[in-house]
């Protein structure tokens, strides 16, 4: 077997709550503007237009509880989201079979260099510079769906330094989790380890060094992240 020219990087993994097990991450898909109020907030149409997705890198998922403020930006925003972890996958998955591929859930943040994203949008360029930077997806431990069930409703919220910034309900998603899985599977061969960030409610805003963010989703506990 040919030798590697250097040691392969470790597979990014996330802790599973209450165990020593780890969830290995393969890819990270994110849906844009999936809550009507946030779509309006970002200048979009709240009607049920076709979903669109972008990606983060697997090692952008960071369970450390610390968010290093990124370079090349002066306007970094928080976006609290439900993360869906797949335990299996496939192509052309029917909506009514989608949930059997979900292994678990977690509280996550889609941190965004909003100024760099705005520049990319204006120029018609990809969003990676604003979305897929290092440590851009703080995340809590993974909760197995076998223990939590599949949440279809429940409070999702985020505070910064104790002040409520974002609040909504999972039932306000425009595109529900089974639909996201079905649509993604028409474009990609989904597989175990794929993660889907499911969108954020209204109230996104900037953070600065020293801020403390606390994200909460009913049934999944809280995620505390310090901006450093």
Automatic annotation (TrEMBL):
The keyword Hydrolase applies. One of its GO terms (molecular function) is metal ion binding. The keyword Nuclease does not apply. InterPro entries: Fumarylacetoacetase-like_C, Fumarylacetoacetase_C_sf. Residues 28-228 form the Fumarylacetoacetase-like C-terminal domain. It comes from the Bacteria. Gene3D superfamilies: Fumarylacetoacetase-like, C-terminal domain (3.90.850.10). Keywords: Hydrolase, Metal-binding, Pyruvate. It holds the Pfam family FAA_hydrolase. PANTHER family: ACYLPYRUVASE (PTHR11820), FLUTATHIONE S-TRANSFERASE (PTHR11820:SF90). This is Fumarylpyruvate hydrolase. The lineage of its organism: Bacteria, Pseudomonadati, Pseudomonadota, Alphaproteobacteria, Rhodobacterales.
